[in-house]
Design brief:
single chain, 264 residues, mainly alpha, MetI-like fold, 78% helix
């Protein structure tokens, strides 16, 4: 039994090392003074300074953050409503179709989603003249479309384990449905809503494939910019940018974990 436990720990350690050692190497080489990524030339912050002076990267990062915040917020609202509908409402005509439509983006290849949304925007532009040009708005709509499915699944899972007797007791005491919803239901599912928002935010910030189909000139997100630069070879400023993103994500994950723990 002891040997088996040691073997499992070794496998787990190897798996985590396989995942995190490359990430740590990106962080270490972001402080490399050399222009060659794999050749250590001494400790330096020159690439972070270069990153702060690069208006193209800063503009793409700001656009990505704006799209991610808006899409995650809207997706959380719609996803929460969808999760509540699927859990609370009993059998109704079209329930199976609605469930399939909500969960299909989870398994749909991104390239199919991107192509279908591209055709949708082209058709709408021909019929009603909107959108006049593809850009930040179309990217935001596309991100809301697929990320709300993740929020709905998370919220529905949370509702499945919640105690509905609290809401029934509140209504028996004279609470109106809307007041009960905000005073009882929302605090109960708040951890799931926070998790869904963070998941939607991360998916939006990370998306390359779908954004490539629905974007247009002047609307280049940060992942698209990084992907275009990496095709020509990884440069130290990309390592610095990746390190900044890793730091921001780490802070967000820790803050969300503490907040969810407090709510729970």
């Amino acid at each position: 039994m002891k040997k088996r436990g040691t073997g499992l720990l070794t496998i787990a350690a190897f798996g985590y090392a396989f995942l995190y050692v490359p990430i740590l190497s990106v962080v270490v080489y972001s402080f490399n003074d050399s222009r060659l990524v794999t050749l250590w030339g001494g400790f330096s912050l020159r690439w972070y300074k270069s990153l702060l002076e690069n208006e193209e990267i800063l503009g793409a990062a700001l656009l990505s953050l704006q799209i991610a915040v808006v899409s995650a917020t809207v997706a959380t609202v719609f996803g929460t409503i969808a999760g509540l509908a699927l859990h609370r409402i009993g059998r109704f005509r079209g329930r199976t179709l609605l469930t399939g439509m909500i969960t299909s983006p989870l398994v749909m290849p991104e390239i199919i989603t991107g192509i279908s949304l591209l055709f949708l925007f082209i058709t709408l532009s021909d019929w009603i003249g909107w959108p006049g040009a593809r850009g930040a708005v179309t990217i935001t709509i596309a991100h809301i479309t697929f990320s709300m499915a993740y929020v709905a699944v998370v919220v529905r899972s949370r509702l499945a384990g919640s105690d509905e007797s609290l809401e029934e007791a509140a209504m028996d005491l004279g609470g109106r449905p809307l007041r009960v919803f905000f005073d009882i239901t929302v605090p109960t599912i708040a951890p799931a809503m926070i998790s869904g928002w963070l998941l939607a935010f991360t998916l939006s910030l990370d998306d390359v494939v779908i954004a490539s189909f629905v974007s247009g000139p002047g609307a280049t997100t940060l992942p698209m910019l990084i992907f275009s630069k990496v095709k020509l070879g990884v440069t130290p400023d990309i390592n610095a940018l990746a390190t900044v993103i890793i730091a921001l994500v780490s802070v967000g994950v820790v803050a969300a974990a503490l907040l969810i723990r407090r709510k729970t």
